[in-house]
Amino acid sequence: MNLNLPIEIAEDYSSSSQRIRVMTEYWVNRSVFCPNCGNVLSQFGNNKPVADFYCKKCSEEYELKSQNGNVGKKIVDGAYFTMIERLESDNNPNFFFLTYDKSTFGVRNFLTIPKYFFVPGIIEKRTALSPTARRAGWVGCNIDISISPKSGKSILFKMELSKAGMKF
Fold first, then answer.
1. Beta strands in 58-139, from DSSP E residues, in sequence order
2. pLDDT of 1
3. Can you give the pLDDT at residue 74?
4. pLDDT interval class at 112 (50, 70, 90)
5. Half-sphere exposure in the Cβ direction for 137 (13 Å, CA)
6. Which domain holds residue 62?
7. pTM
8. Assigned domain for 45 exists
9. Domain tally, the chain
10. Which of 28, 56, 87, 155 is 20 to 30 A away from residue 48, measured at CA?
11. Domain containing 160 — which CATH number?
12. Is residue 130 domain-resident?
């Protein structure tokens, strides 16, 4: 498994967040199989609310969240009300969490949390943007994965950086 994000596919993007999104989605699309049935994953088109990948065989859906560094207790996410609506729907998604090292663009950790551990109670509502903000009134959210039990987190791989080098 290649643990390097493909930098070359994001050269046309100027925004660093868009570059990372393109690289991490590309990596998942080429490296990860459906945790539910083992089939190849397909990618949704851009701007599908709280869904990035799906499995044609078992119909499971997956949302990818990526960040530089380590997976912490909370993960910054998008629109609060969209997330709550999606989690309360009949086809709420499973989640992938990917961390990478920004200095090397190497994937460090990848874990999945099944949808039945994602309930509205782990979604933390952030303060609405101020009236002077470009998107005034918009409300984002954080995902508090510290509330999810350890038994609900399936780790595909975890790398630890140490003085002696990388450990798997």
1. 61-68, 74-79, 94-101, 106-113, 123-125
2. 77
3. 87
4. confident
5. 0
6. 7-72+91-119+144-167
7. 0.82
8. yes
9. 1
10. 155
11. 3.40.210.30
12. no
Distance (Å, whole) CA 126 – CA 163:
38
Please provide the size of the chain in residues.
168
Asked if residue 151 is part of any domain, the answer here is yes
Closest CA to 25 of 13, 83, 141: 13
- φ/ψ (deg, to 5) at 152: -90, 0
DSSP string, 127-160: PPPPTTSTTTT--EEEEETTSS-GGG-EEEEE-E
> Quick one: tokens of 102?
């920004």
Q: Is 26 helix (H, G, I), strand (E, B) or coil?
A: helix
Q: Is residue 85 part of a domain?
A: no
Cα 27 to Cα 96: distance, rounded to the nearest angstrom: 12
pLDDT band at 163 (very low <50, low <70, confident <90, very high): very low
> What single-letter DSSP state applies at residue 104?
T
